[in-house]
């Protein structure tokens, strides 16, 4: 068993001062308590560390060796104390996050960069996840924060608050006959669509809007990512609907056009999803930073 830090500090100061009584006084210990600590230390080491003299104490060879190592151990302990203290006050730590591809193609990367600049000792662990996966990660404790595109008021263990507004746009090949600057969604439903796989919030929104218009969403291709959606549109497999920022990111160089959607529902919010419990100091700092960017 390693000696306790107080006993090591007491020994180190006695070694440096040449006096156990002076070392005890510095550490606010009685001389008898200090003597007892040194005796226990010598018992644990199974060797004499200090020789008592009429003027104080002198180290043995073993005591000289211990003094060197004690100094190193105490320095490391101090560094440990400072670093752990940084975690406690939030100046150091890890923020675990999930975000949708749509959020990552928007202002989120710039918001995270600004956070890192002002909090250089905080690390961000970021995973791209769809909305349902991000919500599940926060609910299960695998993520502190998720940026998602749907909220679920039935999940009492989670909090959802607005992060950013974004507009949806139609994406069409450059030579497509639709050349409007703005268009109602129902006018797109005479064309084939390229969409995302699975029941994402975006696809659910388009399906609901199609049913409200009394038409069917003619999905010819369903793929996993916005990037591939754009490539399929480029190949004339259909048209699509994407968040404006994602369209700007993924349509670049593909000779595609975007058309604003005039429908009210085409302006939607992303959400900050967090557990409905106390966050770590680092995660709370991130939430406050994201709120400030709205």
Word description of this protein:
- The chain is of the alpha/beta class and 294 residues long.
- The chain has three domains: 5-89, Winged helix-like DNA-binding domain superfamily/Winged helix DNA-binding domain (Arc Repressor Mutant, subunit A); 93-164 and 269-292, Periplasmic binding protein-like II (D-Maltodextrin-Binding Protein, domain 2); 167-267, D-Maltodextrin-Binding Protein, domain 2 (3-Layer(aba) Sandwich).
- Helices cover 44% and strands 24% of the residues.
- The chain has eleven helices and twelve strands.
- The chain has helices at residues 5-17, 20-26, 31-45, 61-89, 101-104, 108-118, 131-139, 201-212, 226-234, 244-250, 281-292; strands spanning 50-52, 57-59, 93-99, 122-128, 145-148, 158-173, 182-183, 193-196, 219-223, 240-243, 256-261, 267-275.
- The strands form three sheets. Strands 3, 4, 5, 6, 7, 10, 11 and 12 form an eight-stranded mixed sheet that branches. Strands 1-2 form a two-stranded antiparallel sheet.
- Strand 8, helix 8 (201-212) and strand 9 form a beta-alpha-beta unit.
- Helix 1 (5-17) crosses helix 2, helix 1 (5-17) packs across helix 3 and helix 2 (20-26) crosses helix 3 (31-45).
- The protein is rod-shaped, with a radius of gyration of 32 Å.
- The two termini are 54 Å apart.
